[in-house]
Amino acid sequence: VANEGGKHWTVNEVRALIRIWSDKNIQQQLEGTVRNKRIFEQVAARLQKFGIDRDWKQCRTKYKNLKHEYKSVKSAQDSGSTSKSMKFFNELDAILGHCTMEQASKSDNDETERPPEWTEAKSEKDSVG
After folding, report:
1. Under a CB-based contact definition with an 8 Å cutoff, are residues 68 and 89 in contact?
2. What is the DSSP letter of 6?
3. Alpha-carbon torsion 60, 66, 69, 72, what sign?
4. For 95, what's the count of Cα atoms within 13 Å in the CB-facing half-sphere?
5. Which of 1, 22, 89, 94 has the highest Cβ tally under 10 A?
6. Cα separation values, 87 from 65, 73, 77, 115, Å
7. How far is residue 98's CA from residue 104's CA, in Å, rounded to a whole number?
């Protein structure tokens, strides 16, 4: 069944997409933005060099689908289930496995790095009341 992106992605096409996606530069751009048409236009242009003809929308859709599938397999594994798996899990884990950890530790740090004025101002108010 063809999805809105047209014909199904072949194994080689998906591998090429993942190879481009694994580029640190592309990853950083994708992490830092929601409006990512420009990035996927770059990805599509790189795929063309491999002789793969996909437009940016197809690339973005495939990227989102792979990411979603990866996350559902990963969370199933984290909860102890081994029944869920996917074809490119290890490749995606190499890309997404570390950045989810980084983001988790980053947000933990945000909690502890509150400006000192905040806590001081709060305690002054408490002592006045």
Report:
1. no
2. B
3. negative
4. 24
5. 89
6. 13, 11, 15, 45
7. 10
Instruction: Measure the CA–CA gap between 6 and 117, rounded to whole angstroms.
Output: 56
Lowest mean pLDDT among 4-13, 67-76, 96-105: 96-105
How many other C-beta atoms are found inside a 10 Å radius of the C-beta of residue 66?
A: 23
For residues 70 and 86, the answer to whether their CB atoms sit within 8 Å is yes
pTM of the model: 0.69
C-alpha pair distances (Å), 4 with each of 20, 52, 106: 22, 17, 36
Tokens of 77: 């594994």
Instruction: Give Cβ neighbours of residue 46 (< 8 Å, ≥ 6 apart).
Output: 20
Produce one character per residue of 19-50: b if its CB has 16 or more CB atoms within 10 Å, e if not: ebbeeeebeebbeeeeebeebbebbbebbeee
